[in-house]
Amino acid sequence: MIESRPATTAAFDSLAASFDELLERGQMMGRPCLFLATGDRRRMLACLDAEVLGVRLGRTSDAFADAMAVPGATVFSPGAGRRGFADWVALPAAEHACWEHHVTAALALARP
What we know:
Blueprint: H1 6-18, E1 24-28, E2 31-38, E3 41-49, E4 52-56, H2 62-68, E5 74-75, E6 88-92, H3 99-110
Antiparallel strand pairs: 1-2, 2-3, 3-4, 4-6, 5-6
């Protein structure tokens, strides 16, 4: 499990609770995540990685550009690795007040 500060974990738990009816909680790569389940398919939309929330927005979307404008936002690179997830934005825990907005955008982009 990737460790986050208690306040960051609490922010993620609050975020997850606000999407209880729409997204499933789970884990991927040892990290707490939020998934959109459609039929027999699960698609990861958000992932807590230490002190950032990775959100899948699609690099060509307006939502991606909007998220990259958040102070401290970068391309998501789990585990501080060198390989970034090009369609994902890492939103810092210090900006957790905007997480719900960006997960809402990810959900809208992911729905068929």
